[in-house]
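As the next step, I selected for study a record pairing a protein sequence with its C-alpha cells, which the following lines show:
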Amino acid sequence: MFTARDLRNYYPSHDGTADGAALTAHVVDAGSTATAIICDELTGADDYVNDWTVLGISGTNLANVAAHVKDFAASTDTITLARALAGTATAGDTFYLIPSGAGDYRSTTEIPGLAATALSAVTGVALGYVSPLCGTGTAYFNFDRSGTSLALKAPGDTNYGAAVAVASGTYSLFSADEDKALDVIVTEGSLPVADGTDSSTLTRQEGRLFPNTEGYESQTGIIRYRAFFVKNDGTDTAHEVAAYLTGRTSGTSTLSTAASAGTTAFDLADASGFPARSFWLHNDAADDFRYIKYRSGNTLYPAAVTWGKLSFDGGGTTAIAVGDTVTGGTSAATGEVMAIGVSSGAWATSDAAGTIYLKDLSGTFSNNEGLEVSGVELALAAADSSLGYRDGTYTAAWGTAVAVSCAPDIDIARAELSTNALPADLTALSFSAPTTAASGVALGGGELAAAELDGVCLRQVVVDGAYPVDDVVMQMRIRSW
C-alpha cells in the first residue's frame, strides 16, 4: 500500500552521471576562514559553483550550516561564502555542494523536512525526516511499554495515528491524518521502562534549497532557481501526485478602498493576519502580485512595479544574456534582463523563441520590433511587453472588496526529466503559485509508478531593495495517495 513516506524529495548531484549518485563529501583544506573555504578537490573554472549551496556535514562551525556561494576562484580553489560562518572552517571539515539542478541527475540524499526538537521523556527515540505536511506546531508521541510501540499525533490533529511496534531501527509514524508522517530512529535498549508521552516542536528549516538572500543581491534584485527530484520509493503507484505551495501566513482579507495602477498603498478591511513586512500580496480575482515592503495597521505599502516580461522570437546566433540592457528598435523601450528562457528553437540555429524577464522596464516594447543590445539587433518582440511580477498581470485597478491573500514567496513548476536528468534551461519552465493540492502542479502526468521519478523547480523573485525571507523551502508541499 502506498503511504505518504513513499514519496521522497532528493537533491541533485553536481558530479553524477546517472540516477542515484551519492553526493561527494568535499574536504576543507588549511588556510580557510569564516568566509572562505579552500578545497583543492574542486577543479572547475572560475564561478562554476556560484549561487550553489554549501551544506555543512562536519566541523564545529560548518556542521548543519546552509550557506550561499558568492564566488569561486579556480586559481586558489576558494569558495567565498555570502555570509560568514560562526567561526573559521578548519582543515578536515566536510561539506556537500548542492547545484541549482539544471541538467543534473538525482543524488541519494533526501532533502530535509521540518526541524524538530529532541524528545526527552521518551528516551531512545530520535526524530529523523519530518514531512512538511505535518505542519508547524507541537507534535505528540505516545509510548506503550507492553507493546513496545509508538504513536504520533501531529499538529492540528485531535487523535493519535496507529501505533507502530518498534525495536532498534528506523520507522515511519503516521498521525490520524495519514498525510502527516515522520521518521523515528529507535535504540531499543534505551527505551523507557514504563508507558510515557512526549512532545516535539516542529518548525521550518531555512536555506536547505534557497540559502539566505544577501544584501548585495536583494539590493539589486535577482531571480533564482532550484530544481530537485521527486521519487516514488514505494512498491505501489502514487495517484494524483501534485506539488503546491503555502504562504508564510494564512492572511486573507478584502480591499476596503479601490487601488489604481501605481498605487502607493493598499487599504485592507483587516490586515492583522498578514506579516509586518516583506511579503507578496495576491489579487485573488486577477491573479496579480504586489511586493509589500511593510504593513502599518490595515495599510500595506508596496514596491513600485518596475519589472515585466517580453515574448521574443527570431533570435539570431548571438544570445541575449542576463545583465544585458535590451532596447526596442522602434519604441526605444528599455529594460535590464533578469532571466531569459528559450522555449523553442535555439540561438545556434537562429530560431530561438521564449520569454525575457526584465527589470527597470521603461516604455513598452512593441510586437515585431527589433530587440537590440548595444545597438545590435539580436531578436524580435513576439508581443507587446507587459508590466508585472512573477508572471502576474499588472491590472489597472484593484476594486473595492476584491479578495487578497498572502501569497507564497516562490513559484513552482514541473521540471520534466529527460533520461532521468533535469532540464538544462530552468528559466523556460511554466511557473505558477498554486496553494492547494487540487490546484497544484501535476507530476508524472498525475501518477508515479513505483521507483518512478519526476522533477520540480522553484523560482524565487527578489525585488530590488527587498528583505526576502529565507525559509521558502518549507513552503513547498508534495501530496499524493
Observations:
- The mean pLDDT is 93.
- Residues 115-203 form one domain.
